[in-house]
Structures are given as structure tokens and as C-alpha cells.
Write a structure and sequence with these properties.
Layout: H1 7-51, H2 58-69, H3 72-97, H4 102-105, H5 112-142, E1 147-148, H6 160-190, H7 195-209, H8 213-233, H9 237-258, H10 264-292, H11 305-313, H12 316-330, E2 333-334
Antiparallel strand pairs: 1-2
Length: 335
């Protein structure tokens, strides 16, 4: 029987989708605000710990920020504290306003590590492929004298303290908090109006959050895989594990690059590892496609999936959020 729609049905659905878009954009904007507040707070606390008094002007705050950025260990501890506090505050806000519990987002699943290891090669293959694309795009811009900045994962000192601080942030805190925000909240708020749209928007916002073009490309690609796994298993536990494993490569690269007397065999193995992961990822995708491929739910609705995606992406509040991220990304372009 063909589903009969009316203008009233369409208006109601569009209203609900727009409301979900506003909630999602508001949560992301609030997360950015919390991040800014906590970053300023920890800069003040760092300055006080070093000098015994709080900074009286901007130049003193700037000097504290420069000291933090000048030490990899301090920077990683600083980012860990800011990210963790921001995510926890957002979680409390989401619980109070949206009635979303952390336990619902991090719901249990059977054999999470085994499942994550199954999809990690696929995420790795996507990451490697999109990294190549990012390199090509960066080279294209460079031919016109335009540089594209990206994240700096270099270690200023190769020691246990610095390595541990970077590992804690890159492989534990960042994956845990970012998956809660971009796969947990975003997908949970938008999935009722289309799982495909929810995955796309979560990947888009996750990529733009990095505020530079090369990382946006890679994060968007990996975000699609992480979103797919999240909607399939209805939990972010797997995406956290995959995200952590995916981030382990740049961490390991930082350690090897800072290792002056690194054996040639280690460098060779590290260089061919992404290629091995890519091959395994393609094989895993091919083997799982027919038997285990999860198709996004298609619900009968008065509004098409494309219209819903448009209502989300082009929602005025969402556009405000995108505008801020685009402004931050523009600062990474060096002319």
C-alpha cells in the first residue's frame, strides 16, 4: 500500500528534523564554549602554579600559553584536561537537558574488542586512502604557494614522561571524548530521522572540528566508518576502540621520528604497516559485505532522506556552528 502524505505530515516531520538539528548544533556549540572556558581556566591555573599569582593582563596569559605550547608533555596534559572536563560538562548538560545518559551511549556489547579488530583494518584502509588524497590536495595548493597547516604530533623530548602524556591524550582521552560527542550525542540525536544522515553529519562535524584541511579529509573518511559501526551496534564502545587504534599510528610515528638511532628495520616496518592495514581492510570489507553488511534503516516518511539531510546541514544554528569552524580552518591556510 502506498504511503499517503499530506502537507501537515510534511510540516510535522520537517519541524521535528529541524528541532533535532538545533539540539545537535547547540550541543556542539556548547562543547566548543566549554572547551574555550576550560582552556582559559587551565592557562590561569598554570600561570598561578608557576608564579604564585594570577596574570593581570593579556601578555602574561599569552606567555603562559606559549610555555604550554613549547613543551609536548605540558601541551598533552593541558589538552587532556581541557578535553576531559569539556566532555564531562557536556555529558552533564545532555543528561539534564536532553535526558541522555552516558550509560545509554556506552551501552554494552558482546566481544567488543573482537568486533573492533574486525573493523579496524577497514578504518585503517580508509584513513590511508584519505591521507593520500590529503597529500595530493596539499601538494596542489603548495604549487600555488599556499600551505595547509596540520596537527603537529612531534615530540620535543623522547622520554617516558613525554611519550606517556602524548599516548594518554592521543590514544585514550581524545578517542573517548570525541566518540562521546560526535558518535554518541550527534548520532543519537539525529538517527531517528535517518541513520545515513546522522552518520554523514557526525563525520562532517568531526572532520571540521580538527580545524585544518588535511586532517578534515582524513577524519571525515574515518568518521564515516566509525559512524557506521556505531549505528550498527548501537554503542560507541567499538568506535572508541577503533579510534584509539587508529590514533596509535601517529603516536608511534612521533616516537620513531624522535628516535635518533632507530633501527632501519623498525622504520621499514612502520612505513609498510599502513599498506598492510589497507590490504587487510579491503579484504575485510569484501568478505563482510554480503553476509554482515548493515543497511541503514529506511523508514516511511513524508519527507525524503535528502530533504532531511538538507534540513540538518542548512539549519541556521548548524550553519552558525559551521561558520565558526570554517573561520578556524581558514586560519590554518598559509599564503
Amino acid at each position: 500500500m502506498k504511503y499517503q502524505t499530506t502537507e501537515t505530515d510534511k510540516k510535522k516531520v520537517k519541524s521535528l528534523v529541524s528541532e533535532a538539528a538545533v539540539k545537535t548544533a547547540a550541543a556542539l556549540i556548547i562543547y566548543n564554549i566549554f572547551t574555550y572556558i576550560f582552556s582559559q581556566l587551565f592557562i590561569l591555573l598554570f600561570f598561578f602554579a608557576a608564579n604564585g599569582y594570577f596574570p593581570s593582563d593579556y601578555s602574561e596569559r599569552a606567555s603562559a600559553a606559549k610555555l604550554i605550547n613549547g613543551s609536548t608533555a605540558l601541551l598533552m596534559l593541558f589538552q587532556s584536561a581541557v578535553t576531559l572536563c569539556s566532555a564531562l560538562t557536556l555529558a552533564a548538560s545532555a543528561r539534564a537537558v536532553y535526558k541522555i545518559k552516558i550509560s545509554d551511549i556506552f551501552s554494552k556489547t558482546e566481544r567488543p574488542l573482537a568486533k573492533a579488530l574486525t573493523y579496524y583494518p577497514i578504518a585503517g584502509a580508509v584513513n590511508f586512502s584519505f591521507t593520500l588524497l590529503a597529500v595530493l590536495i596539499s601538494s596542489f595548493f603548495m604549487s600555488f604557494g599556499v600551505g595547509l597547516k596540520t596537527a603537529d604530533f612531534s615530540l620535543d623530548v623522547l622520554d617516558v614522561k613525554t611519550s606517556a602524556a602524548m599516548f594518554a591524550y592521543v590514544c585514550i582521552v581524545a578517542p573517548l571524548c570525541e566518540e562521546f560527542v560526535y558518535r554518541g550525542l550527534v548520532i543519537r540525536l539525529l538517527a531517528p530521522f535517518g541513520e545515513g544522515a546522522a552518520v554523514f553529519v557526525s563525520a562532517l562535524t568531526f572532520g571540521m572540528m580538527h580545524a585544518n584541511i588535511p586532517q578534515f579529509i582524513c577524519a571525515f573518511g574515518v568518521g564515516l566508518v566509525l559512524g557506521y559501526v556505531t549505528v550498527k551496534y548501537r554503542t560507541v564502545v567499538l568506535s572508541v576502540i577503533i579510534h584509539s587504534l587508529n590514533n596509535f599510528l601517529p603516536f608511534l610515528q612521533s616516537v620513531i621520528n624522535s628516535w635518533e638511532d632507530a633501527p632501519g628495520a623498525v622504520i621499514i616496518i612502520f612505513n609498510i604497516f599502513p599498506i598492510i592495514i589497507t590490504v587487510l581492510g579491503l579484504l575485510a570489507a569484501a568478505l563482510r559485505y554480503k553476509k554482515h553488511f548493515y543497511r541503514f534503516e529506511r523508514r516511511t516518511s513524508a519527507v525524503s532522506s535528502a530533504e532531511k539531510l538538507g534540513l540538518i546541514v542548512f539549519n541556521p544554528v548548524m550553519l552558525m556552528y559551521f561558520a565558526v569552524l570554517i573561520y578556524e580552518t581558514a586560519a590554518s591556510v598559509v599564503i
